[in-house]
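Hey, I'm writing a tutorial for new members on how sequence and structure tokens pair up, and I'd like a real worked example in the thread rather than a made-up one. If someone can provide the structure for the chain below, I'll link this post from the tutorial.
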Amino acid sequence: MIKFNSFSRNALIIILFNLIAWVIIWPIGEFPINDDFAYNKDVINFIELGIISVHPWSAAIFLTQLVYGIVVAKVFGFSFLALRISVAVFALLGLLLMYKRFSQLASSSSALLIALGIMLNPLWLVYVNTFMTEVPFTILVFISFMFFSDYLKNGKLKSIFWAILFSMLSVLLRQFAILIPFSFFLFFSIKMLLNNDFSFKNVTLSFLPLLLTFFTFFIATYWISSSRGNIGEVSTKYDNIINTFSKGWLYVIKRVLFCIYAYLCYASLPFLFLLPLFIKDLKFFLNRSFLLVLSVSGLITFLLIKVNYRMPFFDGTIYKSGILIPVIDGVENDLKFLPFWNFITFLSVLSTNAFFYFIAKQKFSLSSFLNSASFFYFLFIASYLLLTSIIFPFDRYVLPIVPVIMLLVIDIFRSSLMSNGLVERVNTRIFLIGIVVVLFTIPVRDSFKVQRTRWELINDLLAKGVQANTIDGGFEYNGWYTYFTGKIVIGKDKNWWWVEDNKYILSYRSSILGYRIIDSRKTNTLVPFSTKVIYLFERI
């Protein structure tokens, strides 16, 4: 008889839930998803032309993932599906690594809850099934923090070596990674100041990670700038910063405070899985202070809904009309289901407020906090949220800090609230996980069904010999086929995305002036349960 230890058993549970989510979503299909048409194009450029390039649409440096994608394409051949699966495999390995790390810091059961909470975050579920950079970047950031934390604990140079290496790999994927060594520099400098320990070794190791990571960042951006003229949409980011501050400091403060709270609503959903760890019995719900948290959460939710600020708060991935909706003919896939989003708004607000509530109940000294890894995590989270709030708030930007927030949670609550005796009595985790599987995988599954239906129409049209540049097939289609020939035109005649000639248009609308329907496809969605029709039009 095979015996499993807690790590093997829980690792199998993580793998099983990943497979269940993957089967429910079923992200099969030869087509790009969202912005990953640009990243796929970089891979195929190397495979077909032998050149290293970074697509102009990309605001990320992307080089780390480009090398990874090239290796996958060399072994298995280029395909959208192969690259999509490669990210899913890398993500599963990263998730198992997170679980192993969490289980070293807390009990195995709490580590399992945290790992599954991260996996079942809707942002993770979406981007783990694309060739986008969000999930790989999240994993690299986490590994960097692992080694930085190891160095703070053991002081070994090999730990700082690996921390610097993964910090450099992270910044070669996305520029935000520069905040990792920057936060380490701030933390270590404050720690040296508090302890009056300015040894040559400490001073050197405080700024060396930042120096080397910044040098890597500078060389990469210089090469990309010289080869294509700019870093894609980076100039737009700078314009966003200038525009934000041009509206005055009061606006900046209100924007930052709202965005940070909204970001935490996205990021703190895994904390909802941990609530059973803090609740010993049902009497806890009658506790006056927690009843106040519930009441405040209900009030905040009511006010947000009243001003039409219910979840989702930001653009990018999750919309009231669906998750990762395919944009076709400038019209969103109309799957509005407000009771669902009202419930999600309450859950996200409750988890955020509960997070603050339980932190407020903890007793710890300021000096010990400033000298602990918790302060390092906090500096990164705060600087990351501040920067992304000022630049432009996309929901997917929050994903990389979710595991770091959970490291902070474990570090703060480990001694008093995550003992094995308490955790092993948790019997509701499967129920909670089951709810989230239903809530978040089904809408992603609907999105992929709509995508496959859209591309069936397009592929049938292309098979008839229709020229690719005569079709407005939606954002991803035109990004893949006509990005370098079509232009961004804002007007009545064409949609804004690189449409060269719109002789043929895919649309959710049942009529377009000057066009006739030549084909259509139906697809069923579950959130809510309905039948959606996508029409193919030809210009008369």
